[in-house]
């Protein structure tokens, strides 16, 4: 099955991928792609012109997986590494040397690749807090929506949420939307001193007004119903430019975000691409259970971010 045939769905991801075709593929270190879906996602993304992959991991195992799955590796280079920990370290080294501009997770635990990324002396840290975004194509919603952070920051502080918010804003702007709308989620839409998520939401909105968070329109606290539905917001008397039309959902903590993202995936038949932001380069962090379509969409988003980063570095 070729890359195009693997893509099917509501069309939002496909439109995103189509917008990337003229940008040119980006060198990408693919970490330990020792499972068929992980390997096929990287190879198909290369076939679509999104990335130039270098496969990092046990060379014999990678070739064995490719043969068993009927995946043609062609001239894709393989950097041999004996196991997943070594593959993560080697891939980060490729990025630090300038040989790769994207890091892509294969079939290893997220902790392994993130451990190499955040290593103090040899990793890819910046001054920004690292955070994760799910870029979700929900069939019943009118556009792709970003959920953050549902994979890295367990109980983020207000300072953490500031970086999480700004990371997501920069991502959506890189995807071509000049002023994204952010709904800051809580259980209720009113500020309640006994509910810290509502206090954080109010503070984040004020920070955006004062320029501490840039480039987006924020509103919150908003409960999920009135964040997503204009009718729900109207019924509750909420006047908001964000309600019913958010591009980003900022969740109160990892548990809430993880449950939300997985509910959308398994109950609403959504596809979710995954990306880590705030490091030196975008990091494609998909689940080992993700489809090839989700992996390709993740590559497309990372490619756009990498091209934006090139432009910023060129202008500096």
Under the CATH scheme, which architecture of the largest domain would be assigned?
A: 3-Layer(aba) Sandwich
* Count of beta strands: 11
H/E topology pattern: HHEHEHEHEHEEHEHEHHEHEEH
Distance between the termini: 43 Å
Oligomer: single chain
Number of domains: 2
Per DSSP, the total helix count is 12
CATH hierarchy class name of the largest domain: Alpha Beta
Mean pLDDT: 91
Query: Pairing-aware structural class of the strands and helices?
Result: alpha/beta
- Evaluate the radius of gyration: 19 Å
Shape: globular
CATH topology value of the largest domain: Rossmann fold
Describe the strand arrangement of the main beta sheet, using strand numbers: 3-2-1-4-11-10-5-6-9-7-8
Largest sheet: 11 strands, mixed
Strand proportion, as a percent range, falls in: 15-25%
Low-confidence stretches: 1-9
Describe this structure in words.
It is built from twelve helices and eleven strands. With 316 residues, it is α/β, with parallel strands linked by helices. It has two domains: 1-125 and 279-316, Rossmann fold, CATH 3.40.50; 129-278, 3-Layer(aba) Sandwich (Isopropylmalate Dehydrogenase). The chain has an eleven-stranded mixed β-sheet, with helices on both faces. α2 (12-20) crosses α12. The protein is globular. It starts with a helix and ends with a helix. 51% of the residues are buried. Mean pLDDT is 91; it is low at 1-9.
């Amino acid at each position: 099955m070729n890359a195009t045939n693997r893509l099917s769905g509501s069309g939002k991801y496909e439109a995103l991928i189509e917008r990337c075709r003229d940008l040119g593929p980006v060198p990408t270190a693919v970490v330990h792609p020792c499972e068929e879906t992980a390997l096929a996602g990287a190879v198909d993304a290369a076939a679509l012109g999104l990335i130039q992959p270098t496969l990092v991991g046990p060379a014999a195992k990678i070739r064995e997986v490719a043969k068993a799955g009927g995946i043609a590796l062609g001239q894709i280079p393989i950097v041999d590494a004996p196991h997943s920990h070594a593959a993560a370290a080697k891939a980060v080294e490729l990025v630090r040397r300038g040989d790769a501009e994207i890091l892509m997770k294969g079939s290893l635990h997220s902790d392994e690749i993130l451990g190499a990324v955040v290593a103090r002396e040899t990793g890819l840290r910046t001054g920004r807090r690292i955070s994760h975004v799910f870029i979700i194509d929900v069939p019943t919603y009118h556009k792709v929506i970003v959920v953050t952070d549902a994979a890295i920051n367990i109980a983020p502080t207000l300072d953490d949420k500031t970086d999480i918010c700004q990371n997501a804003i920069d991502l959506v702007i890189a995807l071509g939307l000049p002023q994204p709308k952010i709904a800051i989620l809580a259980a209720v839409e009113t500020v309640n001193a006994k509910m810290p998520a509502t206090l954080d939401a109010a503070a984040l909105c004020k920070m955006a007004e004062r320029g501490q968070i840039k480039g987006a329109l924020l509103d919150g606290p908003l409960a999920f119903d009135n964040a997503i539905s204009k009718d729900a917001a109207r019924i509750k008397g909420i006047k908001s430019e964000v309600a019913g039309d958010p591009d980003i959902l900022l969740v109160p903590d990892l548990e809430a975000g993880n449950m939300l993202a997985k509910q959308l995936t398994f109950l609403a038949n959504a596809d979710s691409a995954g990306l880590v932001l705030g490091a030196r380069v975008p990091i494609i962090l998909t689940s080992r259970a993700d489809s090839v379509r989700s992996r390709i969409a993740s590559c497309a988003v990372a490619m756009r971010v990498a091209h934006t980063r090139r432009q910023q570095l060129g202008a500096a």
